[in-house]
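Entry 12.
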Amino acid sequence: MNRIKNYTKMPRNSEGANETNMHADACRLIANTNNPPDNRNGRENSWNAGVQMFVSFLLAGYGMVAASLLLDRVQHWNVFETVPEVYILVPALLGLKGNLEMTLASRLSTHAHLGHIDNNLSILVIGNLCLIQCQAVLVGFLAAMAAVAMGWIPDGQFDIHHAMLLCASSVLTASFASLVLGLIMIGVIVLSKHMDINPDNVATPIAASLGDLTTLALLSWIASLLHTSIGTSIILPTLIIIGGLILVPVCGYIAYENKFTRQALDEGWVPVVSAMVISSAGGLILDYTVSNYKGIAVFQLVINGIGGNMVAVHASRLSTSLHTGQKADNVFSSTTKLLLVMVIPSQLIFIHTIEYLKAGHTSLTPIFILIYMSAALLQVFLLLTISHYMVVAMWKLGMDPDNSAIPYLTALGDLLGTALLGIAFHILFAIGDKDSDLGD
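Predicted 3D structure (tokens):
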């Protein structure tokens, strides 16, 4: 009952109907304690859950591959060659936007299990679209400022036209991507519910896969259009930036007044910014390892992407269990074991895809596969263990894990994956697997 009481402490407005809705939610949660909403006839079938998660991981992985191929193509566009700071903007914007979309997917999955989508779909849609619009535009400003600073510090030269181009491109990309991806995620979760698919198993990986590809495509297109029209004038980017500054408080106010998104608006900022700091530490490790082992870069995308998707699914499922009044699974739950089993086939598929596309610089020898798989398994095992304790701790502290856990966990996934991959390459080099690809 304490969990139910804590969950129903939502922001109240002056309308009496709000208390009635909260009472109905509490009654629904009591009923769901012994009858989980995602499987009313008992425990979720492990085979069905495994198939749903594996298919979503494949989609996410190939979305990541598609984004990599897209980046390989657009890097030759004039805007990337003339304004190299756009390269700095890419990982920052993709990482921050990915966290926003995955937390949105986790929140909406929980609402689907609680029955809120059946009765309050329009309120949920408006509140969450405004919430991620507010967050995304501010994230866009933050990512642009970071890119401008990193481009200015090395040589001490500041170009106002480049700075305005980066800021306007980032804000406009974040705004459009949030609108498109938000609508897609709502559609995915509603469709999953109607098809009797657990949205916790599919929503966050789909958000990750579509987020990278959509955001990169929009950024490249918008930056290119602005670059061709900007010339010596900063009027157009200035208007875009002013529009973003107006949009933030308007959308923030609407999200604050919405009972389903007020808590997320309060809690969502610190995890996203903290995740950026943690990911930056992973970037420093990557910079060191890439300088020594050129073959590491392409595998870093795979190990971090798969690890991040798996821990996001785990956190989303665990958060839903807590919200629906169920006891948290133990660390070595059936979900944990299932996700660990999926690491090997998922990684094998994508590293062989890399080899087939000739995108890597390392031969897939048996010893390489063994050590690489060991690093991937250890990364996912550590992430799932941390996920369990983090989500439960947040819940006990009165925080909603749907709003806070995933950014920390995906950032830790980047840090752990990069570090373990660097150790794996170092071990390979030390034991004599020194083919020309590995160290060159």
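Annotation: Residues 1-42 have pLDDT under 50 and may be disordered. The longest helix spans residues 116-152.
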